[in-house]
Amino acid sequence: MTSHNSVHIKLAKHTYDVVIADGLLTQAAPLIVPFLPRRQTVVITDETVAQLHLPLLQKTLSDAGIASQVLILPAGEQTKNLANLERLLHFLADARIERTDAILALGGGVIGDMVGFAAAILRRGCQFIQIPTTLLAQVDSSVGGKTAINLPQGKNLVGAFHQPRLVLADTQMLTTLPRRELLAGYAEVAKYGLINDPAFFDWCEGNAPALIAGDKPAQIYAIEKSVRAKADIVAQDETETLGIRALLNLGHTFGHALEAETGYTDALLHGEGVAIGMVMAFQYSAAKSYCSPADAQRVQSHFSGLGMKTTRAEVTNASGSRLVEHMLQDKKRQSGTLPFLLARGIGKTYLDTSVDLTDIAAFLDGHSPQSSNIPE
Ligand SMILES: NC(=O)c1ccc[n+]([C@@H]2O[C@H](COP(=O)([O-])OP(=O)(O)OC[C@H]3O[C@@H](n4cnc5c(N)ncnc54)[C@H](O)[C@@H]3O)[C@@H](O)[C@H]2O)c1
Ligand SMILES: [Zn+2]
Question: What pTM did the predictor assign?
Answer without folding.
Answer: 0.95
